Write a sequence for this structure.
């Protein structure tokens, strides 16, 4: 009698465990299709080199871009 | 500052592979991954053979961005298309979508296990702290944050490969074409990459960029 009760208890708990496997919990908390899901990036001029000075960063980049034109570096 | 763009002048490219070597060395790109490569079209056809340096063109309306199932791509305010490797699942959809074959997948192990996607970052690093070890490990060097242009273009001996602000790059190319009497068709891939814009792209750029955070420490 006692062993029968144990077996019934075991079967009931096992069925609960098996049913628990049917539940699907969401793995992504806030996924919106078409929206960037990664970490936020900083802007290039916000790094240690420019410390938020966008104007200097832009002028430095413009100068570098201009240096690619060897025609302007040569005398006419 | 407008959009950052690449332009390869096929009239000048001599297939020296200096850009490829510079990129590999600067970012310590793993074996088997080619962020940039030089391809030859019309190979063997006399007078029509052209070489051009190809990498991610950071398209205005990037197809990789559209097909990514995990939405790991974002576009910066400067028009550079980057991705978060922590979100990438290495599915390879972007590789099939890209017209330039830019996305690369490191392979390892006996069965060639495919890793997370790797591609040209326009030397702009990724979504990690600028200049940090983590950024270098995942995405390579962040030259843009140092006020420098991509090394492939700066290293180019014939200045066939140009990089930088779209207006500056276009002006340089226009001046060349006028001087040599060309037609401007030498910039292969330019219209494919930048032919059309996208309003959605600008929305993503705004979403992916942080509101000016405080930075502490770090070397100059």
């Amino acid at each position: 009698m006692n062993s029968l009760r144990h077996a019934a208890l075991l079967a009931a708990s096992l069925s609960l465990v098996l049913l628990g496997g049917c539940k699907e919990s969401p793995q992504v908390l806030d996924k919106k299709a078409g929206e960037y899901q990664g970490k936020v990036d900083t802007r290039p001029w916000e790094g240690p080199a420019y410390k938020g000075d966008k104007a200097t960063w832009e002028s430095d980049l413009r100068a570098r871009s201009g240096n690619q034109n060897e025609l302007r570096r040569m005398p006419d | 500052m407008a959009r950052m763009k690449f332009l390869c002048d096929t009239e000048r490219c001599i297939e020296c592979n200096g850009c490829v070597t510079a990129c590999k060395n600067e970012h310590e790109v793993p074996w088997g991954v080619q962020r940039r490569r030089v391809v030859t079209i019309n190979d063997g056809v006399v007078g029509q053979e052209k070489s051009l340096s190809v990498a991610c063109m950071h398209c205005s309306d990037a197809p990789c961005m559209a097909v990514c199932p995990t939405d790991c791509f974002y576009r910066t305010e400067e028009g550079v298309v980057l991705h978060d490797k922590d979100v990438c699942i290495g599915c390879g959809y972007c590789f099939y979508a890209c017209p330039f074959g830019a996305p690369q997948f490191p392979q390892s192990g006996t069965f060639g296990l495919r890793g997370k996607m790797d591609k040209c970052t326009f030397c702009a690093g990724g979504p990690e702290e600028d200049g940090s070890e983590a950024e270098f490990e995942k995405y390579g060097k962040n030259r843009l944050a140092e006020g420098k242009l991509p090394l492939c273009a700066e290293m180019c001996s014939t200045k066939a490969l140009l990089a930088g602000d779209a207006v500056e790059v276009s002006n340089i190319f226009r001046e060349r074409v006028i001087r040599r009497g060309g037609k401007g068709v030498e910039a292969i891939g330019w219209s494919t990459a930048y032919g059309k814009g996208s309003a959605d792209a600008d929305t993503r750029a705004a979403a992916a960029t942080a509101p000016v955070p405080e930075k502490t420490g770090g070397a100059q």
